[in-house]
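W.,

You were right to be curious about this one. When I first looked at the sequence I had no strong expectations either way, so I just let the prediction run and decided to look at it fresh. Below is the sequence, 195 residues in total, followed by the output.
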Amino acid sequence: MKEKLLLHVCCAPCSIYVINQLLDNFDLTIYFFNPNIFPEEEYLQRLSEVKNFCQRRKIDYIEADYVPENWFRFIAGYENEPERGERCNFCFFYRLAKVAKFARDHNFDWFSTTLTMGRQKNSFQVLQAGRKAEDKYRIKFWAEDFKKKFGIQISDWLAKQMGLYKQDYCGCVFSRKAEPRNFTHEKARKFRGIS
């Protein structure tokens, strides 16, 4: 009997390769918890792609609540940090701690994440956050840098073959390469009710 693994995913293109790698060895369930994704339309687009992929592959998935206000509060004070800076450490831990707690509370053997697949992400930061969550909730973290062994290239090719939507930024308002005109980080925070 396979051990149960709860896999946190951030988007479908980053997930395909990882899911294929883990399915043979684990009883896999997908967990979508990404309150950092902004705006909400982007969140819904990414969620829809993940749901469709899971339904096609007959993989169980869970959608956690989308409450970006809590994420904004958690990273408050780090809005001006550069990408791969301290804000990202907080963001990774915030999400992976939620995944670890859910996995522990629902009798999973392991948890993991596809975040190491992201081009904009520092895998060391992601894995460090996962290990912190592992220590806090006492559940095993499958710590793998899925970028290695041509993971990104394979995932890109598969996503293209499947016609999946591929975003061009990590997800949070601070990581956007091209924000709408006059849409500053401060306005984003006010938009979400954080002052």
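Here's what jumped out at me. The domain at 3-191 is CATH 3.40.50.620 (Rossmann fold). And, maybe more interesting for your project: The mean pLDDT is 89.

Coffee later to discuss?

I.
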